[in-house]
Inverse folding.
């Protein structure tokens, strides 16, 4: 059973005990991510994430990890476009240790200059590693073009020139405005007690109640109807075909989930069967949808040999057009519902999924969403709901494409533009 408390400072705590479970999963979620990095400081959110592991007033970087690892637990963190997550997993009997480490990181991190310079080098290596993978570079450029002139489209790791120039004082100012109580959600799942965690945080987490943050701007969609391309001497061409969607809080996302499941969500999907199984054009071919607080997108991807580029693009476009003209049969929709329901039920056996789901809904909706509500919303979607979404958002004038590795043939209804 969920419990939620909102402290006078604005900090939110959500817990979900699991009977018979021995582990405690704890996560501190900062409700700001890479899209909130200021101009000239792209990569600040990710840089701070690294620095919170580099030592506090009372613990070295090694000691922060060792205290949890020596008890069989672990610490980790990651940055997304709209949040930064710090997690600890440990046996429930040692939960106080993990809470102590996380609150120490948030309260007492020192950003020691020499450690910051070492970590700057590590992050630049991380950027270089990303740039060595053509499919990841293509995905990066796709979002840059889809959300052009908006930080939502910027790479999470940041821009090299900004990472090289960010100062300690700038990072500390960034922390003071974003790592505040009203911008923080703490969640715990497993062998946990709500009141114990609540009292621990009240006693030990000393951070500023609020801070001045830049207001997010919803992206303008400047490049729909365009095919961007970049010739490269790669073994594969990476095709990204997508369209902007609506925000997470739009209930039509359930129809999108079902469309995606049928169109490109697995080995029985339309894309997989047509592109891979019937024509052997690609090993990796799939689609997915992602939602943010104010927008979202749908994306189909295929990695193919250069000579198969135009045929694959034609297949994907033809299947999209067909899916937006004629409703999927009711039995196909029913199977997709059962697949998603089955996956959800299985994933709920995993505490890591449970805590991620709790925090996603708190971040996007500011409330806990019972699994029963999700399943009810999914079950209420009709074939007509799905085709309504497909015809409105996935018609050619709403699509954008990026072809990384080759110049495609001209496509009716699209303009071609080479990436310099």
């Amino acid at each position: 059973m969920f419990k939620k408390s909102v402290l006078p400072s604005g900090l939110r705590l959500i817990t979900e005990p699991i009977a018979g479970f021995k582990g405690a999963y704890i996560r501190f979620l900062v409700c700001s991510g890479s899209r909130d990095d200021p101009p000239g400081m792209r990569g600040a959110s990710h840089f701070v994430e690294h620095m919170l592991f580099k030592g506090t007033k009372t613990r070295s970087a090694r000691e922060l990890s060792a205290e949890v690892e020596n008890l069989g637990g672990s610490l980790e963190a990651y940055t997304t476009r709209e949040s930064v997550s710090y997690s600890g997993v440990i046996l429930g009997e040692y939960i106080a240790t993990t809470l102590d480490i996380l609150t120490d990181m948030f309260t007492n991190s020192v950003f020691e200059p020499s450690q910051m310079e070492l970590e700057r080098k590590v992050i630049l290596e991380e950027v270089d590693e990303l740039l060595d993978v053509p499919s990841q570079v293509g995905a990066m450029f796709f979002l840059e073009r889809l959300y052009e002139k908006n930080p939502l489209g910027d790479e999470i790791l940041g821009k090299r020139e900004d990472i090289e120039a960010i100062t300690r004082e700038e990072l500390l100012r960034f922390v003071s405005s974003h790592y505040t109580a009203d911008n923080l959600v703490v969640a715990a799942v497993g062998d946990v007690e709500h009141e114990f965690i609540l009292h621990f945080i009240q006693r030990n987490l000393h951070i500023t109640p609020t801070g001045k943050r830049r207001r997010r701007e919803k992206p303008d969609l400047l490049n729909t109807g365009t095919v961007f391309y970049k010739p490269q001497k790669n073994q594969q061409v990476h095709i990204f075909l997508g369209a902007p969607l609506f925000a997470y809080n739009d209930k039509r996302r359930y129809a999108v989930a079902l469309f995606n499941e049928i169109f490109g969500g697995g080995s029985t999907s339309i894309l997989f069967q047509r592109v891979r199984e019937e024509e052997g054009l690609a090993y990796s071919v799939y689609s997915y949808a992602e939602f943010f607080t104010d927008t979202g997108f749908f994306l189909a991807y295929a990695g193919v040999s250069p000579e198969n580029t135009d045929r694959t693009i034609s297949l994907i476009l033809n299947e999209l057009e067909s899916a937006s003209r004629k409703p999927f049969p009711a039995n196909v929709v029913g199977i997709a519902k059962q697949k998603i329901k089955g996956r959800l039920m299985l994933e709920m056996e995993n505490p890591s999924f449970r805590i991620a789901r709790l925090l996603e809904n708190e971040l996007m909706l500011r409330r806990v969403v019972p699994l029963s509500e999700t399943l009810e919303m999914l079950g209420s979607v009709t074939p007509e709901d799905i085709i309504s979404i497909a015809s409105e958002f996935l018609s050619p004038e709403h699509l954008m494409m990026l072809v990384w590795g080759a110049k495609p043939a001209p496509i009716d209804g699209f303009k071609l533009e080479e990436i310099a």
